[in-house]
């Protein structure tokens, strides 16, 4: 699968797949092979990602009282991402795609994003910031899918695409654990929540500008 410089897949089969470097790793391929020996479906894996996100969100919500829950939140976030990787690999590389696969690929992602980012806001002590970040994250997906509805390849560029948001959350969990053990200040989670909100809004702008640029270029002078 080839990827264009602007972050879009250029193959027909992968035109609407998020470019993920880990997809080519031996670890991911071994897990995919193992899953293909079971009756599990890509849609079930997508739904499992919501469960892991919910566990991570609950842990993040209560971690201010029990700091070791930051590790649970980190694990939940990473397992959510692992499911997001494997559902596509089982569907495409494993040939187990279904007519409703596109729905299961998108809807659970929005739910998982919302759970984790809202929990981040409440964990930071500012609930509205989490809701604003979740809305901005959903808008990045809306812009991407809307570009696809116009006949364009879906644009997965950042600066705060899904993998970037989850990276920010994962680093925040580690730093917040250290912060809770070393100081009474609570700065890590608010900074992470603001980073996701501002970055997601910037992502909406960059993706929208790319859509406009491609449309203008296609229409000619």
Automatic annotation (TrEMBL):
Protein name as it appears in the record: CDP-alcohol phosphatidyltransferase family protein
Originating organism: Sinorhizobium numidicum
Superkingdom per UniProt: Bacteria
Membrane-crossing segments per the record: 45-63, 68-92, 112-145, 166-182, 188-206
Keywords (A to Z) from UniProt: Membrane, Transmembrane, Transmembrane helix
Record keyword Transmembrane present: yes
């Amino acid at each position: 699968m080839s990827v264009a410089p602007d972050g879009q897949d250029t193959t027909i089969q992968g035109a609407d797949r998020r470019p993920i470097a880990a997809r080519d790793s031996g670890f991911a391929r071994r897990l995919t092979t193992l899953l293909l020996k079971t009756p599990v479906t890509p849609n079930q894996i997508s739904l499992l990602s919501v469960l892991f996100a919910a566990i991570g969100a609950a842990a993040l919500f209560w971690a201010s009282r029990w700091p070791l829950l930051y590790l649970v939140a980190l694990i939940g976030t990473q397992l959510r991402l692992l499911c997001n990787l494997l559902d596509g690999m089982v569907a495409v590389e494993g040939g187990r795609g279904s007519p409703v696969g596109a729905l299961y690929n998108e809807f659970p992602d929005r739910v998982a994003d919302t759970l984790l980012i809202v929990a981040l806001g409440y964990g930071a002590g500012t609930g509205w910031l989490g809701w604003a970040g979740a809305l901005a994250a959903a808008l990045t997906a809306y812009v991407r899918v809307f570009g696809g509805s116009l006949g364009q390849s879906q644009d997965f560029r950042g600066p705060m695409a899904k993998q970037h948001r989850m990276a920010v959350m994962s680093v925040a969990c580690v730093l917040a654990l250290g912060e809770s053990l070393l100081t009474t200040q609570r700065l890590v989670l608010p900074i992470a929540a603001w980073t996701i909100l501002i970055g997601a809004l910037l992502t909406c702008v960059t993706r929208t500008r790319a859509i406009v640029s491609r449309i203008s270029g296609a229409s000619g002078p």
